[in-house]
User: What shape does this take?
Amino acid sequence: MSSSTLLDELIEALRCLPGVGAKTAQRMAHHLLERNRDGGRRLATKLGDAMQRIGNCQRCRNFSESEVCALCRNASREAQQLCVVEMPADQAAIEQATGYRGHYFVLLGRLSPLDGLGPKELGLDLLSARLAEGEVTELIIATNPTVEGEATAHYLAQVARQHGVRPSRLAHGVPLGGELEYIDRGTLAHAFGSRLDV
Amino acid sequence: MSSSTLLDELIEALRCLPGVGAKTAQRMAHHLLERNRDGGRRLATKLGDAMQRIGNCQRCRNFSESEVCALCRNASREAQQLCVVEMPADQAAIEQATGYRGHYFVLLGRLSPLDGLGPKELGLDLLSARLAEGEVTELIIATNPTVEGEATAHYLAQVARQHGVRPSRLAHGVPLGGELEYIDRGTLAHAFGSRLDV
Assistant: This one.
């Protein structure tokens, strides 16, 4: 038995975090109680706030606490480029790694009929309406290079062409700093086939 | 830039958890928002509650939301045995691993004069008063086998003897399932020196 029911409940609640098991949850709870109660209190407030108030942007479907997110409202971003990603984490990765200054569209999934994810669930009607506005000239397709991601990319390229928008796709090949010897066959074959003149 | 200020604040707040960096914090925030808002809300409530209400038991100094913790109040535990540990996590480990049915006393540290941790900070006046009550007959010393833990154990043994209480200490030696070849020299030498008749 434990000395505190509330502590047991906190440890149980912490296990909803990904990758956190019983032992880690206990370590986290003890750490906060022993050394960082202010941090714990701040986390409790922010967490409650975020779960309550964060929804999805009506324009790009990314996380947002307002109807239209800060990025969509930002007039200094280029309106001609629209980058389509599967998940909010992909958007964050591109935003952090590249100097891209255009807008995003988040599918919140990938085409997967068996899971009941069709064009409607991915908000492709919203995307079509956006392309029909006529401002976007390039649709940058940044879905994952998986089977479902490729199928989604293929579909998105068709949608773009229907609206007279140029579709483009992230380059696939050997990662920087990778060694040919250790790269998987599929990637190597693709990189070899898509070699560029220098 | 990000699509949501509140999301950025949540990610920052999550970093107060031990072992959670920027990347993990982002993954946790996205996971909760995408898949487990109920879990996130429950965590927010429990966390706020725990930070506010959990203090230390007045009898054993372990975490407790009441003045005296559930374990100290439990009349079915044996009052003759008192096990002294450094931290609440040590108490939890002993409680989970062993069939111990006595009571605990938590030092919330170890003797370390350089860090300003003396007998007073470890609540040894409280421990002395407890031993003076006369119910305890065995003081099980379960401090860590570090230099400071050993010094603390030595001191605790003296306190116990002053009150006519028998001090005992966890056995040190080769861990079960360990291989002699890979055990550190200190442990092996100790185990060899403390060999028992069979």
Observations:
- Chain B touches chain A through 62 residues (CB under 8 Å).
- Strands of chain B lie at 55-56, 63-64, 81-85, 103-106, 138-141, 166-169.
